[in-house]
Amino acid sequence: MTQPSSLAIVAGAGAGLGQSLLSRFEVEGMTAVGLGRTRPINPIGTFLEIDLADAEATSLAIAELIAQHGPPKIVVHNTAELVIAPFEKTSLNDYQRTWTSMVQSLVILGQSVLQPMVTGGGGTLIVTGATASLRGGARFSAFASAKFALRGLTQSLAREFQPAGIHVAHVILDGIIDTTRSRDLHDLDPSKMMKPEAIAEAYWQLAQQPPSTWTHELDLRPASEGF
Amino acid sequence: MTQPSSLAIVAGAGAGLGQSLLSRFEVEGMTAVGLGRTRPINPIGTFLEIDLADAEATSLAIAELIAQHGPPKIVVHNTAELVIAPFEKTSLNDYQRTWTSMVQSLVILGQSVLQPMVTGGGGTLIVTGATASLRGGARFSAFASAKFALRGLTQSLAREFQPAGIHVAHVILDGIIDTTRSRDLHDLDPSKMMKPEAIAEAYWQLAQQPPSTWTHELDLRPASEGF
Amino acid sequence: MTQPSSLAIVAGAGAGLGQSLLSRFEVEGMTAVGLGRTRPINPIGTFLEIDLADAEATSLAIAELIAQHGPPKIVVHNTAELVIAPFEKTSLNDYQRTWTSMVQSLVILGQSVLQPMVTGGGGTLIVTGATASLRGGARFSAFASAKFALRGLTQSLAREFQPAGIHVAHVILDGIIDTTRSRDLHDLDPSKMMKPEAIAEAYWQLAQQPPSTWTHELDLRPASEGF
Amino acid sequence: MTQPSSLAIVAGAGAGLGQSLLSRFEVEGMTAVGLGRTRPINPIGTFLEIDLADAEATSLAIAELIAQHGPPKIVVHNTAELVIAPFEKTSLNDYQRTWTSMVQSLVILGQSVLQPMVTGGGGTLIVTGATASLRGGARFSAFASAKFALRGLTQSLAREFQPAGIHVAHVILDGIIDTTRSRDLHDLDPSKMMKPEAIAEAYWQLAQQPPSTWTHELDLRPASEGF
Predict the structure, then answer these.
(1) For position C39, which CATH number holds?
(2) How many CB pairs under 8 A join C and D?
(3) Which of A51, C129, D152, D181 is geometrically suited to a Cys-Cys bond with C133, CB 3.0 to 4.6 A?
(4) pLDDT above 70 as % of chain B
(5) Domain range for residue D186?
């Protein structure tokens, strides 16, 4: 499916899952490019500092990547903007920010990569969801509404671009990803966290599925996580 | 549950369902107030022309209503902003507009009414969903992502305000509502459209449920509609 | 929708919800008939002791009812057979018994009433589900698999009989019903249990929906129940 | 995860997916054993003719396999019993047969393999679902109710055996599998059918997931299939 040296883009490529995805793609010989607001220390492959909610900057950067490397074969949308607060303490700005970071950024990304991918003969777009994609919990109103929106948008993209040979998949991450930051934030035994390398492997396998047998949604959670 | 002369607010009170809801509430002796951008001809009860995505204007208008009539016992969120277009032809502005009209307006409405309703001893908030709340179809990316977001937000509100005695329900309208505008737009036998009075009755029944037995989500569709 | 003196049948009419349903229907002037294995003390309306998993006995009894009263306008399927046990301790017989009591009984009931209801000009069939209709929990494998099956069967019936004017609805009861038996079994404040009269009211309202606006699934739970 | 020479069992190992699964497992050096009523021509690995709804025969055969090879590392439940008919033409026997073939057989299989797998240090059980696992369509009442039941049962098994290190996953096959039989039955371009080898690959990947990152449900469908 995926040729060595073809382009893989991870939008939202911070330390943790983003970098593990780039690493997984690079191992296969792909040209791995990460996009995001904050450059991680020693980033894998190429990293472009960019605000993914900025349509002009993002579409320009991606157009340049495509001019140089051809249309991407794998694109991952992996931006995150978590707000946890009671409804009364969640500001309009919180709602706008989570929506802009997670939904508007997928619109911009999709409009930058999908048509070139169609022209380039196909490819895979994977969108990272969360528990909150399926359940609006108390104190998660901003985050859940944005993650729900992202899922609806991803379904529309899957149905619209499937006939043109683009595989669009939504992955529900139901658990804490094991990163330095998670270990600081959560009082949880790291053995109960999802390893970013294992998630990256699942994304890679999605991108290897032939058109006869595509997954449009799957969940991933630690064996230790109730569900 | 609902006392005569208590306040009922319909946010998004255009001709069709909005007006039928106000009529249903007025029949019960409630003070029916519609809010929306465009005043319908001969509106039921009081109609306030207001942009529901404008936080300041909306919260001020609702504060005045509450000062005059006490906290509402029934509030319906019923704004609509339909966009149907291929992804490539859907602008960022389309996404922002559907989100602002449908999701931001519920945040503003909720932050204006919920705390007074809690103080006032309870009440019901009903949010109008659509087929696109559960399924992101081709050419519905903007509308579906906003309707998904609305559902996630509504679930969070239900879980957060349930302990305080507020019943928050989401209604999935899976069909065309029979209005003058629908009859012009759709080449569909009106006998296959949902009658706004029948939908209003279902909303009224939701508001009558005692706390021992609350519905949080139901669907409504014509007998003629495949599903 | 429902004429006085028309027939209402509740299959699974024990003390609690079954009897409350019959009472609600009788108040409207309907001829209320309960079916079930065990006659409750002072049953509402007519009670026929019958094993609802017995095809011959059930279809014969219903044929006689129809000969006498005409086809039913409302039929409720409300049989219950709860098994809670670890998978290793759940016998094949447990699986067969829950399935036979809940699923086979709906097949037999449907094949006895649906065609006469079509001929009689329509009516409503309501099927009682549970939390376990949507979620297979640990130690609920027998009960959940039967309740899932019941939901699948109900959906097929809804889609098959909708064009013929039969409204088939599935109600998810997510909480403990307040009965003498529940109060003995559960160490739960009865104020946190669902009142059978309130559930019966919701069923009655379903049966009143006009064909333009049918609900096919709704949930009911106490305000005190997490979800 | 999976050691060469460890045991893989496919219950429902006919021509098509069953045989492709055995082939995929054998390629990895596993001992591949197929179970089923009808021996395919030139079966992969070992094939035992057995009625999987027969508790005694099945548990005995599996106990012998375990005595010989140790507990299985991968077990797939893949029995099928399709009935398509209007509700009025579907007999009680049809319902019993689909349930027995698909649900009872999983109970028997699970009670034969799960405890040994726990003792053996873990493993993966994969259950094959269908479109009808999520949607009860017209004329599918028997098949859908059994597939719904299977999904509920699988969820209970997943939740119950996850803490003991067993990965239980449900795969929704939403499309026609490309087999000789499908090509005869369906007037569908084989390029629009799912290749059994590709499905087998997805099952294999599920069995490779580490406990930090388990999928409990995924869908598989051809790019050509609407959803």
Answers:
(1) 3.40.50.720
(2) 137
(3) C129
(4) 98
(5) 7-220
